[in-house]
Amino acid sequence: MVTFGVGSHNPAKIRAVERLSEFFNLTVQAVDVPSGVSDQPRSDDETKRGAVQRAKGVIEKSNADFGVGLEGGIMEINNTVYVCNWGALVDRNGQVFTASGARIPLPESIAEGLRTGIELGDVIDKYTNQLDVSKGEGTIGILTDGLITRTDMFFHIMQLLYGQYQFYSKSKG
User: Fold this and answer.
1) Domain named Non-canonical purine NTP phosphatase/PRRC1: which ranges (predicted)?
2) How far is CA 62 from CA 4, 6, 27, in A?
3) What is the pLDDT of residues 83-124, one digit of tens each?
């Protein structure tokens, strides 16, 4: 059985990795590791760096076969703020695979809160009058009326990550 360590205790991220069990037998463990970036990553680069650092931290802190880092952030193009998300998969040989997922523009009322320095999780909780949206459907779930949830988004990234791992493993053998 293969063990995936997830560098987070966020239920949406853990569920995304657990969904890989649709394809093969695995166990998932949450590993508390820092991202090494700000609590609210504000660019693709920072968000990706946080995912990679979490995945590497899992390998350093646990006995998992794979370290997984899943990081959500925001980025701006032409004065429009978008949700962005990155994932990283690191194996015991030190191979690092990265992938990014869906982007969706944020309503200006949410972007305004972010520009004042407030984190997206806090802004979306206030916007929806809910608590811990980031641990459930996520901002993407709110803005797509539940058609795509945060777990779905991160699962897509996990498919991209593990698919890359499989491709490169086959091409070496």
Assistant:
1) 7-156
2) 10, 10, 13
3) 999 999 999 999 999 999 999 999 999 999 999 999 999 999
Q: Which two tokens stand for residue 49?
A: 């760096």
Alpha helices in the chain, H assignment, sequence order: 11-18, 44-61, 108-115, 120-128, 138-143, 150-172
pLDDT at 173: 63
Phi-psi region of 36 (alpha: psi -120 to 50; beta: other; left: phi over 0): left
Domains, in order of start, for the chain: 2-172 (3.90.950.10)
pLDDT tens digits, one per residue of 157-170: 999 999 999 999 98
